[in-house]
Amino acid sequence: MALNVDNVNYDPFDQAIPGQGMTAEPGSRVWESPSQFSKPEEAAGYVIDKIENNEKAKDGMLNIMAAGSPIETIVNTMSFVGFTEGKWTPDTAELIKVPLAVYLVGLAVDNNIEAIMYNFAKEDQETMNESDLYRMMSSNRPEEFSNLKRNLEEQSMASMNEEDMDVSSPEVDNIMENLPQDEGGFMPRRGAV
Q1: Between the CA of residue 160 and those of 139, 150, 154, 164, 174, what are the distances in Å?
Q2: SS3 call for 130
Q3: pLDDT single digits (tens) 138-158
Q4: Which residue in 166, 137, 61 sits closest to 104, CA to CA?
Q5: Is the pTM of this model over 0.85?
Q6: Any residues with CB less than 8 A from the CB of 74 and at least 6 apart, and which?
């Protein structure tokens, strides 16, 4: 019962049977044997030497970075592949990510390539808006929040001239609107029953 989805034959029943991973002979997988490198310094050195001593590999890394692949993705792939090949343990794979990233950044700088560090573009990063920040501060640090609120009110009063006492600045109004109001807590009191 194969489905043709966009010229790709897809069989929904062609997948691993639950528990199938537990049926392999113990020790038959590469990562179940002792790893080749036990020290992160040796593992990182191995990868860096492999790139440095092979011009084709070095050019490939430079091309991948020039094409816009994030260094985070490249490093994650290298560390995972080394684990699946039995070169190092998962712990060592995590520990070599920083030295490999530093090496790749240096390689990119030496070759005038603008390196992208992370998997998401800067414009795609979600930033916390002020109202969420104030709401979080009011629940996690209520004393500091009260001080901040009091200081904002004092600043707004001090910045007003006597002639425009009834008009407040738009910046202060915007901040004051975004401050969370006391809604009575998680379970507000409701009249006596």
Answers
A1: 30, 16, 10, 6, 16
A2: helix
A3: 888 888 888 888 888 887 777
A4: 61
A5: no
A6: 61, 64, 65, 104
